[in-house]
User: Fold this.
Amino acid sequence: MPGWRRPVERQRWASNRANLTFVMHARCCPNIRKCSIERNLSGEADELMGRNVDAPSRLNAVARYALATVLVALALLISLALQKSFGNPFWFFFSVAVILSTWFGRTGPGWLSVVCSTLAVMYYFTPPIHSFAVSPTDLPYFLTFVACEVGAAQLISWRRRTEDALRQARDELELRVAERTAELKNANEALLERMNEQKRTEETLQATQAELARAARITTIGELTASIAHEVNQPLAAVVANADACVAWLSRPHPDLWEARAAAERATEGATRASDVIARIRSLITKATPEKSRVLINRVMKETAILAEGQAARNNVAIELELSPESPVVLGDSIQLQQVILNLVMNAIDAMTTVTDRPRTLTLRSESPDNGHIRVVVQDSGIGLTEDVKGRLFEPFFTTRSKGMGMGLSISRSIIEAHGGRLWAESNGSGGATFQFTLAREDRTSA
Assistant:
């Protein structure tokens, strides 16, 4: 242990020993009351500090004062040895002793070296020799020496205190920097963990939304069961009729190959149409990951109109297509976009079931309000929207249909917003409602 251990280090050492004593005492005596532990802790800490801190402090103090005495004695011996050769060089060596004593021994030993140096100079070097008296002629010189020694002691003491303060400030700063670094590291790890948790939550939410959208598509397909059966039954009936015709043309005494071929081609077309209907239905209910690609929005609207044609016919609704001649292209998932349009179409058909005073017309329109966007409009002549309904229209589980889930419009808006667009509804002035959404138009030159 160095002889000049700083007070802060001694206090930390004593505090650590006291904490260790407290832990050992608490483990050995777990049933003792808290006040008794505190009294024992205080007494043991005081005893440790008195036994392990005060004793080294006393030894260090004695060593510092002894160092000051030794340095002054060395300065005296050197000065006496060099006195005959160089006159009286005492001022130099005693100043060195004062400086070293003050620097290594601190303030108290420094002042002791000043006093010892002054007495040594008075006794050995100022007339009358071997006396503590100073002659009047040497008094100015002696006072100058004392002033220099006092000034040197004060200057070195101030310098030492300054360096100790700077060292202590540096140690405290390093400790605070280490603590702050540990806090920042812990905060960074907590932030990373939170970000990972948020990412996992977002992935789970996306998977849930995809499953919910698929459930909504299946529900919509369930509502279109009769229409789907009609759409499939028509081409299948045509296939059977054309096949019978083909057989009849071939069974004649003089087979008409041209007529038989034409019937066979018509049967092939009917089978292809039925296959297309089934493929569209399968694509709507499939559990595929959404993939964005270039989508011809007019084609999606036509396919949706074909799917809803049977449902519209049973409700005496006429579907009109007003498609943009530019054949606009958007970047998105065709299945999800068809789901949105189909949901809006089914809602429009349902809204016109009670209308009897005007034609039931459903208009599907695509247009380009500007060069960068495409707008899809689904307009009906139904009962319209009240202000209360319009305010809650896109809320989850809100519905005006007797058998609705209240999730179709909410899911549709989520899909459109995921494509970077906007979905909203307005009331028509002449009755009915208009649902429309906008999407960013894909630059045709990027194809």
In short: Residues 224-287 form one domain. The beta strands are 293-296, 318-322, 329-332, 361-370, 373-380, 422-427, 433-440.
